[in-house]
């Protein structure tokens, strides 16, 4: 028999979160119940610094931009901003901009539309900005917003107005906007795919959610928190073995907290006894079919030189030779910086020429630059 309650699954030990995080959880339970509690586990200084920004920014009415890799918990920070601010208790509505490829559809979801304004518009529709009157609109993955919707959003932020698609009647709205993105918007601004004026208006108040690999021992607190929740839910007493915890402590966590939670869940359910062993999640950390690295491709004595030559002369590309081994912890951060620095010396500091040297296409430029920035891999070049 399962003895389970959402309260026991979501409750955080006082040793695993800040006082602010506990206050946010209590506020979220009051508003949405234990099932939808906002749980922010961790005590690393970088996480606490981001939480303190949330506390200060919550009092403002200005837009907030939340950045961070996928799976870091940006939506939790958006909800914390809402719960700690004066609009708590009013609507909090979320929309994922990446779900809409059609410009009319995303504009309609945000700002509404008039009947007959485009195919499928069979009746008038109120957008999320009108529905959230007096509350907060959370725009997730705002980097995917279409150019037309970007222009309309800029008007809403500046004038507090919306014009439905296909309409000409201006409607006043009173909402606070919180936006989030896992992309670096700066190269998009440079490339002209994201409006500079919108970027600077959103980034006036900015919170960066640190990735899990930069949060010290927080991974251990998170593992224990999610495991405690599963044990409470299934009336179990399972624990990770010391070897399993050591293996997790070495992992790079490319999927951040979201990946950690799924890994704990998998290990819990695959374990045959009360001890969760490394084999329960070996497929995730060491996926089958991954190419075994050869001596020439490994870091170490001449390793970075060999990697560079494979790209510059051998016809292989950066994603295969550097990106994949780095994500699998076969190349260190300093070794990747060495490879990039060597290329930049040959291109006189030009990243656009560098990507050709590394076997990439020009279309890879933004993805390449995002990767370097997200993982702090840009080298400091000396004259």
SSE layout:
Elements: H1 6-10, H2 19-32, H3 45-57, E1 64-67, H4 74-83, E2 92-96, H5 103-111, H6 128-131, E3 136-140, H7 147-159, E4 161-162, E5 171-172, E6 176-181, H8 185-191, H9 196-202, E7 205-208, H10 218-234, E8 239-240, H11 242-249, H12 256-270, E9 275-276, H13 282-285, H14 303-312, H15 318-327, H16 333-346, H17 351-357, H18 365-374
Parallel strand pairs: 1-6, 1-7, 2-3, 3-6, 8-9
Antiparallel strand pairs: 4-5
Would you summarize the structure shown here?
By secondary structure, the chain is α/β, with parallel strands linked by helices. It has 18 helices and nine strands.
Describe, in plain words, how this protein is organized in 3D:
By secondary structure, the protein is α/β, with parallel strands linked by helices. It is about 45% helix and about 10% strand. The protein is built from 18 helices and nine strands. The protein has helices at about 5-10, 20-30, 45-55, 75-85, 105-110, 130, 145-160, 185-190, 195-200, 220-235, 240-250, 255-270, 280-285, 305-310, 320-325, 335-345, 350-355, 365-375; strands at about 65, 90-95, 135-140, 160, 170, 175-180, 205-210, 240, 275. The strands form three sheets. The chain has a five-stranded parallel β-sheet with strand order 2-3-6-1-7. A two-stranded antiparallel ribbon has the order 4-5. A hairpin with an 8-residue loop joins strand 4 and strand 5 (about 170). The longest helix has 17 residues, at about 220-235. The chain is globular and about 60 Å long. The relative contact order is 0.10. Residues about 290-300 have low confidence and may be disordered.
């Amino acid at each position: 028999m399962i003895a389970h309650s959402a309260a026991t699954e979501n409750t955080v030990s006082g040793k695993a979160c800040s006082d602010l995080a506990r206050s946010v959880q209590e506020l979220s339970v009051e508003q949405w119940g234990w099932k939808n509690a906002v749980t922010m586990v961790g005590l690393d200084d970088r996480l606490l610094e981001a939480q303190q920004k949330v506390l200060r920014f919550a009092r403002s009415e200005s837009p907030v931009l939340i950045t961070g890799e996928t799976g870091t918990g940006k939506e939790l920070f958006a909800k914390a901003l809402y719960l700690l601010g004066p609009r708590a208790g009013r609507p909090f509505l979320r929309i994922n901009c990446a779900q809409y490829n059609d410009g009319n559809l995303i504009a309609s979801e945000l700002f509404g539309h008039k009947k007959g304004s485009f195919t499928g518009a069979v009746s008038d529709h109120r957008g999320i900005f009108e529905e959230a009157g007096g509350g907060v609109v959370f725009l997730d993955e705002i980097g995917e917003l279409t150019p037309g919707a970007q222009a309309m959003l800029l008007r809403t932020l500046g004038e507090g107005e919306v014009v439905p698609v296909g309409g000409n009647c201006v409607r006043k709205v009173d909402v606070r906007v919180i936006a989030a993105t896992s992309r670096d918007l700066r190269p998009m601004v440079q490339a002209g795919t994201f409006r500079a004026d919108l970027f600077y208006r959103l980034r006036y108040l900015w919170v960066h959610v640190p990735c899990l690999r930069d949060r010290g021992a927080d991974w251990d607190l998170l593992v224990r928190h999610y495991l405690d929740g599963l044990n409470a839910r299934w009336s179990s007493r399972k624990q990770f073995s010391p070897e399993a915890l050591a293996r997790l402590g070495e992992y790079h966590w490319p999927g951040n907290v979201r990946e950690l939670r799924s890994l704990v869940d998998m290990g819990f359910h695959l374990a045959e006894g009360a001890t969760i062993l490394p084999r329960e999640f070996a497929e995730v950390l060491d996926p089958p079919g991954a190419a075994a690295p050869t001596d020439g491709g490994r870091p170490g004595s001449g390793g970075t030189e060999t990697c560079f030559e494979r790209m510059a002369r051998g016809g292989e590309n950066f994603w295969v030779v550097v990106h994949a081994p780095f994500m699998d912890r076969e190349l260190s951060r300093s070794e990747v910086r060495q490879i990039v620095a060597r290329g930049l010396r040959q291109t006189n500091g030009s990243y656009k020429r560098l990507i050709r040297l590394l076997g990439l296409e020009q279309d890879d430029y933004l993805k390449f630059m995002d990767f370097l920035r997200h993982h702090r891999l840009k080298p400091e070049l000396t004259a």
